[in-house]
Amino acid sequence: MQQRAYYVTTPIYYISGNPHIGHVYTTVVADVLARTARTAGPAFFLTGTDEHGQKVANAATAAGKLPQEWCDDLVPRWQSLFAAYHVAYDDFIRTTQPRHERVVQRVFETLRERGDVYLGTYEGWYCVFDETFWLESKLAGGKCPTCGREVQWISEDDWFFALSKYGPRLLEYFRAHPDWVRPKSVYNEMMALLEEGVEDFSISRTNFDWGIPIPGGSGVIYVWFDALLNYISAIGWSVDDDRFHAYWPAAVQLVGKEIARFHTIIWPAVLWAIGEAPPELVFAHGWITVEGQKIGKSLGNAVDPFALADRFGADSLRYFLLREAPFGSDFSYSEEKIAQRHNNDLGNDLGNLAHRTLSMLQRYREGVVPAPGATPVLARFAELPQHMRTAIFDLRFRDALESAWDLVTTLNRAVEERKPWALHKEERGAELDAFLYELCEGLRRLAILLHPFMPERMQELWRRLGIGETRIDDAWESAFARPLAPGTHTILGDPLFPRLDLVGK
RNA sequence: GGCUCGGUAGCUCAGCGGUAGAGCAGGGGACUCAUAAGCCCUUGGUCGUAGGUUCGAGUCCUACCCGAGCCA
Q1: Rounded distance in angstroms from the CA atom of residue A178 to the C1' atom of nucleotide B60
Q2: What value of ipTM does the predicted structure carry?
Q3: Nearest nucleotide (C1') to the CA of residue A495?
């Protein structure tokens, strides 16, 4: 009996434009979860791109390209962005891939056979930009209530998904699983929607053709219906049942709050309709804002995430996002805040602890790890791995990092108390050995525990500790049980997190 | 118009019935291994407003104000 993998997904990103820091945020969160999970067992991390729909087709046309060319040109930009932020996904799905299109069509056919997808007539207002139908009563001054653009009156035969049939079951499921949608505010809002009642909705489009064809019919499948299925097409639904069930249901699906509705109401209903279970947790995070304003090209406040990585270091950004943002709420970021976190937490606390330790080791012991003695500080932090793991899987990243920083601060205090320079002067060699050893082992443990958050810098710390040839991402308990070997040759090197001078105002 | 979440020190937030907390920023100090970093001490809040429940309320209830959001 194989242990089911920890399956984590990000939304697939709609490539009608360029990626921004918000995409980095979601993806880095998923990466931290996956990296942590991998230290304890199998895990699978999926991200990708959502490539169909009229907006993509329009963007391609505007650029003088075919939709597929447009997508093919843009995808590498997303992939290189994630690489720049040290994101290690297991799979990157594109909704234009045959493996996905086959599954979408199969789901459509399955639902049609069951009667959960049926042919009906739709007549009403339609917003091309949002690819959404609107009731007359919802229009704002005759225009689309969400984007403010002109709407068109259309009348067409469409395929409908029988969502209303699942309304009672959804309500029941929500009541029985009060924690399955987080944060609570989003759960409450979705619950309110369910209590009002849900309606069948159209899942086909006939006024353009950039999408997955309706099997045995005309028109294409609605992009949202198509997109949701990426989470199961990537892991082999209906193609490889063993593989599929090794991953599904997902441990956590991360979404932005604006798409919570698709993932917590429509998605479980579709899954039930094909005989599968809903994910264990859907977490809707907030938006990253700049001075309270949502990031967007149109607002002109989009920051190039490549430039941010260059300027502050990708791992500093990762740390900043997970340490500073209250996960689940909107979060106003500024470069000044990034620089503060970098300098204070990473440079002064952690980086300096590493540097002063390795420097003393160099000065007093020629860089060689001495014989161990008592490690009273580390003994007090025996519960740290368990504590951090619990916080991380509960998506309380701030708590996890704060508890790691307790150890950093305690070690810095211990240096002031033990005064290794005095021990050296007074030739109390055994005491100095024991203490230097404890500092090195403490750094080793920090490197292990912080590796999911800052993979590149912690790997470098690992190398400085002279153990670069060994794995940093083994199971935490066993890694703690095999402490640093005396005689290991360490490397001082330059500061891990060099202080940044005043950041522009 | 209905609903949800939030409003606690200059800033970011924790506390959710029992003498107001952390980090950063500000002020002072002793040290020197270190990225003028680290360490110690310290200034600072009538916990959005007004009522209510309670022996006792940021902490529960009601109304209102402000911000964000969901639905109409």
Answers
A1: 22
A2: 0.92
A3: B35
Q: What is the pTM of this model?
A: 0.93
DSSP classification of residue A145: T
- Give dist(CA A106, CA A200) in Å, integer: 20
Give the β-pairing of A43-50 and A91-94: parallel
Bridge partner list, A120: A158
> What's the CA–C1' distance between A326 and B47, in Å?
20
Q: What one-character-per-residue DSSP string does A116-142 give?
A: SEEEEEEEEEEETTTTEEE-GGG-BTT
The tokens describing A455, both together, are 């993979």
What are the residues whose beta carbons fall under 8 Å from the beta carbon of A234, sequence distance 6 or more?
A46, A48, A91, A93, A99, A100
**What domains are defined for chain A?**
335-480 (1.10.730.10)
Task: Give the pLDDT of residue A159.
Answer: 93
Measured distance CA(A345)–CA(A341) in Å, rounded: 5
Q: Which helix (H) or strand (E) holds A201?
A: strand A201-202
- Residue A373 CB neighbour total at 10 angstroms: 15
Question: Are the CB atoms for A93 and A15 separated by under 8 Å?
Answer: no
How many Å separate Cα A157 from the centre of its chain? Answer: 39
